[in-house]
Amino acid sequence: MRIGLLGTGPWAAAAHAPALSDHGDLEFAGVWGRRPEAAAELARRHGTRAYEDVDALLADVDAVAVALPPAVQAGLAVRAARAGCHLLLDKPLALSAVEGRAVAEAAREAGVASVVFFTSRFQPVTEAWIAEQAAAGGWFTARAAWLGAVFGGAGDSPYARSPWRREKGALWDVGPHALSVLLPVLGDVRRVAAAVPGPGDTVQLVLDHAGGASSSLTLSLTAPPAAAGAAVELRGEAGVRLLPESGQGPVPALGRAADALLAAARTGRPHPCDAGFGLRVTEVLEAAGTLLDDGRGARVTD
Fold it and tell me: Is the separation of the CB atoms in 214 and 206 below 8 Å?
C-alpha cells in the first residue's frame, strides 16, 4: 500500500514519519504540509518525496496518515476519502460532531477503510487488558485520570506551542484517550452527567454508560510533572482492576494502527477504532464542552 503523510509538525516527525518509513508492508510515498520547507526537510530525512499540492499526493497514493490539528484534519480527511484514499487518522477526529460526521460519512460513501489512532488501543498490553475487562462485564463504576504536564512543566514540550491545544485544552487532547479505554469496557455514554473545570485546563467529568455503570474522569495538561500519568480503575463483580502501564512508545503503536488499516482495507471489515468510533468520541466531548460552557455547578459559600 502506498501511503502519504499529511503534516510536518512535532508529532508527524516523532511518530508518523518513522512508523510509516519503517513499516514493511507500506511504501512511504510522500509528505505534504502547510509549510513546504518543513515538508521538504521531513521527506529528505525519510527518503521520500515532498508534495506542494495535496491533491497531487492524494492522486498518487492508496492511503494517507494525518498528523494535523483536528480542525484541519477533518476537511482533508473528507477530501482524501473522496479521492479514494484509506484513512489513518489522529485523535480527536474533529472538533465538532458536524465535522466528525462528515468524515465518517465520506469514508462510508467512498468505501475506504479508516482507523483513528487512539494510542492505548494499539499497545499490546493495554489492548489485551481492555478486551479482558470488556469480556468480564459486570462493572459498577470506574475512575480515570489522564494527566499531562504539557502546560505545567518547564515549558520545553513542543506541544505547548500548539494553538489548538491551548484553545481546547485537556478535554479534547487527552479526553479521547480516556474515552477510548472506557467505552469498549463500560458501553456507550448515554449522558454526560457533569462537567466542571479545575485548575488550569483541568476538567472533571461524570458519565452515565449504557452498560449501567458510571465513570468519573479527571483530565489535564497542566498537572505538575511529578503528578503526570494515566490511570484507570474499574470496580465491579470481578473486583478491582487497574489499567497496566505500557512501556511501548508511539512509533510501534502507530505501526500496529497501520496494520489495522491494512487489514480493514483488505477485508472490508471495519476496525473498532474507525471513523464512526472517532465520531462517537467527538460527540461525547462536544456534550461535555457544552456543559462546561454553560457554567453549571453550584458554588459553596459560607
Answer: yes
13 and 78, same domain (yes or no): yes
Grid coordinates 471495519 are at which residue?
270
Of 83, 105, 90, the C-alpha closest to 6 is 90
Whether 171 and 92 have beta carbons less than 8 Å apart is answered as no
On whether the pTM is more than 0.85, the answer is yes
Task: Look up residue 70 and give its three cell numbers.
Answer: 483536528
Q: Based on the number of CB atoms within 10 Å of its own CB, is 2 exposed (0-12), middle (13-18) or buried (19 or more)?
A: middle
CATH classification at residue 107: 3.40.50.720
Asked if residues 149 and 55 have their Cβ atoms less than 8 Å apart, the reply is no
Q: How many independent structural domains does the chain possess?
A: 2
Tens-place pLDDT, residues 254-275 = 999 999 999 999 999 999 999 9
Select from 58, 101, 69, 107 the least CA-distant residue to 87.
Answer: 107
Burial of 113 (C-beta count, 10 Å sphere; 0-12/13-18/19+): buried
